[in-house]
Fold this sequence. Notes:
Layout: H1 20-32, E1 45-49, E2 52-55, E3 60-63, H2 66-69, H3 78-88, H4 102-114, E4 121-126, H5 129-144, E5 148-152, H6 161-166, E6 184-187, H7 201-218, E7 225-230, H8 244-257, E8 260-264, E9 288-291, E10 302-307, H9 308-311, H10 327-342, H11 345-364, E11 370-376, E12 379-384, H12 395-407, E13 410-411, E14 413-415, E15 421-424, H13 432-450
Parallel strand pairs: 3-13, 5-6, 5-7, 7-8, 8-9
Antiparallel strand pairs: 1-2, 2-3, 4-10, 9-10, 11-12, 12-15, 14-15
Catalytic activity: 4-aminobutanoate + 2-oxoglutarate = succinate semialdehyde + L-glutamate; (S)-3-amino-2-methylpropanoate + 2-oxoglutarate = 2-methyl-3-oxopropanoate + L-glutamate
EC number: 2.6.1.19, 2.6.1.22
Cofactor: pyridoxal 5'-phosphate
Amino acid sequence: MDVRERRTKYIDMKTSLPGPQAQELLKRRMASIPRGPFNTVPTFAAKGEGALLTDVDGNTFIDFAGAIGSLNVGHCPPKVVEALKAQLDNYLHPCFHVMMYEPYVALAEKLNEITPGDHEKKTFFLNSGAEAVENAVKIARKYTGRKAIISFERGFHGRTYMAMSLTSKVKPYKNGFGPFAPDTYKMPYPYYYRAPGGMSADELDAFILQRFDDIFLSEVPGEDVAAVILEPVQGEGGFVIPSTRFIQGVKAICEKYGILLIADEVQTGFGRTGKMFAMEHHGVVPDLMTMSKSIAAGLPISAVTGRAEIMDAPGVGEIGGTYGGSPLGCSAALQVIEMLEAEQLVDRAVRIGAAVTERFGRLQQELSFIGDVRTLGAMSAIEIVIDQASRAPDKELTAQILHEAHQHGVIVMSAGIYGNVIRILSPLVITDEQLAEGLDVLEAAFRACGS
């Protein structure tokens, strides 16, 4: 029996997509908003709660996208909503640069406490992940007096100009927007499923780490490099998970040449990978860390945390921004961290990932177009290929599976340099029943499209 025929408990699809109300809103959207901002599902939200999202036509979905990983504690967590309402009664935005406020200080103290490393740290706040990356680069350059920044192939760091320069994927992110920021260089990043020439993981790591010597000879001297920036798991690049050996090797190279290591934890942070921060899996303490997305249950705030002496390199007025660290964002973030700790959601991430791996690892033995299943905590990916022997990416089949899943009530997204990776970023508050129901629908979509 097609598992979609099982009676659903949480999903309730009253219309096909888009429904009548959504169609009217789509007309208004197309008339008033540029085509550039992409949309995963052709409908409009009316209400969100936990791992469920209901649209304007009354269709209720299980959310496996979580606002691209921004909702580890789910839609509208009551404790966060209560904290926001309380903050609204006091003040909205005096601007930290005009009159300071305690939530900003409290959140900085908390991030200094929970981020990797027991050294003295300092934190300041911005609005988005891209802004955090931009400012981490500014701080690194100011502290070291150097200019060059090294990032990695398939990495994604944002859409502002420095962040876009560090990002690897040309389409859709960089196409036609150049020239880009100078003094940026890219290194390979281990993608074990697609290792060239049948290299083992050990061989691929060693090969890439050796390439640092090459780039220091052919492109930029090591003593001119201010920072290396990496995602401890590549998000937009396809949930590509490196080895601890590789991350520790990069750190050793940085230490040898006096280069700062920036960990971009925008998507991996706040419990997503089964640790509060993904760098904890590798026992590596970065010099600077960027955070956003799930820091505040969807409110726009980001952070840069780093060694105190590095963070103090910019002078007064050299970093900041009018809306950075808004009282609402800070209040929400403090509640998010409390939820993650009190409700053991970091451990919950491991159980979610195990359920996804078990389901699709088993299905991989049956369906030849499932090339790879990889998970770290609740950061899960299924790579779709034409066949397991060739490993050729199948972007078209991926799109069909996503469409089928959307029509049957599961919101899920793709990723990867080839657009052939289905990524699962469900809220960590998802119940076992909701997770199983969503996986049932997703499995049925795989079977329907791959037959």
